[in-house]
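Re-run with default settings, no changes from the original entry. Doing this only to confirm the output is reproducible before filing.
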Amino acid sequence: MTSGLLLWCGLFAVLSALGTWAARAYALRRRLLDAPGERRSHRVATPRGGGLGIVLALLVACLTLVLRMPLQVVLLAAGALGLLLVAAVGAWDDHRPLSPWLRLAVHALAAALLAAGTFLAGGSGVLALTAFGLALVLTNVWNFMDGIDALAASQAALVAAALALAGGGPLGLLLGLALAGACLGFLPFNWPRASVFLGDVGSGALGFVLAWLAVLTLDGLPLVQWPLVFLPLSAFLVDAGLTLAVRILRRERWWTPHVQHAYQCAARRLGRHGPVAAGYAVWTAIGGIMLLRFRGESIFGGPMLISIWFAIAAGLWFALRRGDPAGRRPLQEVA
């Protein structure tokens, strides 16, 4: 059983690596490059769109799972179509910048598809509404947080592994391991020095599939334990949420690119991306272990545990941004 799961994970790592290599070659040929600038954390022009390899691997996984689990065809079709929509609008944006509101509308449509699939597959109305909210939020959170080498893909791999093991049934297990494997196949191209970036095609897709996995995990847990699923997601949720809140309170154009996230401040201070991505990985790994440790148990202190965890994360967010100019005041906005 274990060897079979490892082979399954390895298969999608190989597919993703091949797809990433091809996507990088295509980006170089089409000159799809992210140039350095005051709103970016890299120093050399780097091709984008490498996340297409992850998307293709996940679509193969969905097709394979339909053949293995025909009774799940409705949910798999809804999830795969939502993934295609998110990836397509991201790929379009990688080629030619789109209105953020158009992207958001497409993300909302993809989230609605996942919610409908969840409901038609037997999920409750509450679970379907949760699927819509999670898909819309995590798709954009992963896009917001994709700003330094290895961060978005390593976080997705860790969260996917935790959710795969946390009780989402056979579908959650296999889909989660496929996503973790696909991220591992991409990471050699993105670390220690990125030769290609995920691009919007990859970052949004990661967030969408993680939302799908979270919904599968929630479906296997009693309602009182649902907050536990947010433990491995806390690093990205806190950094993205607090940074967005600060930008809104400052009346900045919060939808535009910036370098005010805590991870960007930390990378600037250290002069390297690796230690920051590693620090976030340690935090998320601990959150995943806590999810696996406490799931299925009656824990009266659950809300207190989660509140303390998120409070510590918020404290670390403030500490990482302290003393950084971009954390104290906005850069000059571009008209």
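Residues 245 and 254 are 9 Å apart (CA to CA). DSSP finds 13 helices and two strands in the chain.
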